[in-house]
Specification:
Layout lengths: L1 H6 L3 E7 L5 E6 L6 H9 L11 H27 L6 E6 L2 E8 L3 E8 L4 H19 L1
Antiparallel strand pairs: 1-2, 1-5, 3-4, 4-5
Helix pairs in contact: 2-3
Length: 138
């Protein structure tokens, strides 16, 4: 994951999630999340608790949790219909591009990056990181 963050300056962060969206490990890139994202993050943290990690890391973990369940449901529906495997999911939201690579063992590599960015270049390094993680998981 760190390779994606190191090679692509527009990456906000990357997180490895399980099928339920739980973060296993995360890495931060050099790009900042949009200012409004910080305000949204604070809405998810009770005021009495405060935040025990950097806002950027919290945002990446929170955003990474969201698509994993949806992607798992899409994959299950595709399997039922014989449509093949969903390798990756790419989405665009406001000023952010999102790439999610499916890994073995129902794990997902989520990468968030600021636009404008080269999605092809980022996808290359994301796939490279996914392959490295797959070897580790075997």
């Amino acid at each position: 994951m760190q390779v994606v963050c190191d090679k692509v300056p527009e990456v906000i962060g990357a997180v490895l999630c399980d099928q339920q969206g739980e973060s296993i490990v995360s890495a931060l890139g050099t790009a900042d999340a949009p200012p409004e994202a910080h305000d949204k993050a604070k809405e998810h943290v009770p005021t009495q608790m405060g935040l025990s990690m950097p806002v950027g890391e919290f945002l990446v973990r929170l955003a990474g949790a969201e698509p994993c369940g949806l992607i798992r449901q899409l994959q299950m529906a595709q399997n039922e219909r014989g449509a093949g495997t969903l390798d990756a999911y790419v989405a665009r939201y406001a000023e952010i591009d999102i790439i999610v690579e499916q890994l073995p063992e129902d794990l997902y590599l989520f990468v968030a990056l600021r636009r404008p960015a080269s999605i092809g270049r980022t996808r290359f390094f994301t796939r490279q990181a996914a392959k490295e993680l797959e070897v580790f998981l075997e």
